[in-house]
Description:
- The protein is α+β, with helices and mostly antiparallel strands.
- The chain has 1 helix and 4 strands.
- A hairpin with a 4-residue loop joins strand 3 (150-159) and strand 4.
- Pfam families: N_methyl.
Amino acid sequence: MNSQRGFTLIELIIGIVLLGIAVAGLASLVFSQARPSITPLYQLRASELATALMDEILAMSFDENNLTLAANSRCGSSPCTAPNDLGFEVGESRQNYDDVDDFNDFSINGALLVDEPSLSEIYRNFTLTVEVCYVTEPWNNCRTDIVTMYKRITITVNAADQGNVVVTSIRSNL
């Protein structure tokens, strides 16, 4: 008897179905890991943006009323900005901010975050917001009733749907 070796049509169909199930399982495993693997990259970019803006803010004077760095020009000698008046002055824009509290309620996003047009696509889903407030001690809550020698600067970077990165610093008037 002459027997031929090979697969039947049913065996081929079963093999293809099993192979399809295996590939679908592997694909779902790989794709489910792709999202968490990008999170550190977004967090790094968010951290770099927050640090760059914090450096810019900390380079500013403590208050509008003591813009010089002279030894005796602290806020104690002339009144500092009232807590409810923190923020930029009328007609002021980021290019001419001159003190820390000008950045209160500052918000920027997308292509405006960077000066280089080639980088604008990288940061299009990022939003930075800044809060500046008086505090009596570095990690106390914001004070809206008194002027103190410390301003807390909090920068929150929202990195699309990757969560927030928060950077906080204290600027003192000493």
